[in-house]
Design goal:
Helix content: 55-70%
Strand order of the largest sheet: 4-5-3-6
Number of strands: 6
Largest sheet: 4 strands, antiparallel
Number of helices: 8
Distance between the termini: 49 Å
């Protein structure tokens, strides 16, 4: 293989991986610019190396190293998924991004430039434009997952009664630790409103219930 061709593939992998990594890095995600670059360039190198091996040994499997990269990236993606104290899962988008990042590197390493570049552009659009669209849809959804901090266990009954009177159904309820005061009671709830309501307005109404010290939406 020519040095210029190898260099072009690896540089494109560095550029595409970097573009995806910048967006994640701005949001302070575990896998940012450097991680995405390393994954993409490494995947590209794996394919370039596989092609080199196939040129020297015609009986070699041209897809072996690429398939190993796709399956092996799972350990890195799993490390970016976190479950917070409020049972909130974070890092799924970053994990999926690393997997796509590896696929882009494989495509570029194999010389499939159009596929790698178009996928990079689509992923950038998905992480920016679609996030705004998704937020607007979820903001008025009938279902909302919240964390509420109450004064004591007796306030739960009052909260449930008031929520029901407002046309809000409690689908799930899980008690846990409070965030601001150890003497308070924390609760995770899945609520379903009778009609589409702005989540901000729903939280405002529920926050006025007696005994509620803190309330927030869990995304």
């Amino acid at each position: 293989m020519e040095l210029l061709q190898v260099t072009l593939r690896l540089l494109l992998a560095l550029l595409c991986g970097g573009l995806l990594g910048v967006e994640r890095g701005k949001k302070r995600r575990p896998a940012g610019l450097r991680t995405h670059i390393l994954v993409c360039v490494g995947a590209a190198l794996a394919m370039v190396t596989n092609e080199y091996i196939c040129e020297r040994y015609p009986m070699a499997d041209a897809s072996r190293m690429g398939s190993q990269v796709i399956s092996g990236i799972g350990f890195l993606g799993a490390g970016t998924i976190l479950v917070t104290g409020l049972q909130k899962i974070k890092g799924l988008t970053t994990a999926a991004g690393l997997w796509v990042d590896a696929c882009i590197g494989i495509a570029l390493g194999a010389g499939f430039y159009s596929g790698g570049i178009v996928t990079t552009v689509l992923c950038m659009l998905a992480n920016t434009l679609l996030k705004v669209f998704e937020s607007r849809i979820n903001a008025n959804d009938r279902t909302i997952y919240i964390f509420v901090e109450l004064a004591d266990i007796t306030c739960i009954g009052k909260f449930l009664k008031h929520a029901k009177s407002c046309g809000i159904q409690i689908s799930e309820l899980e008690l846990g630790k409070a965030k601001t005061d150890k003497d308070h009671i924390g609760a995770l709830m899945l609520l379903k409103a009778a009609h589409r309501t702005e989540h901000a307005r729903m939280l405002e109404v529920l926050g006025e219930i007696e005994g509620v010290y803190y309330i927030e939406e869990i995304n």
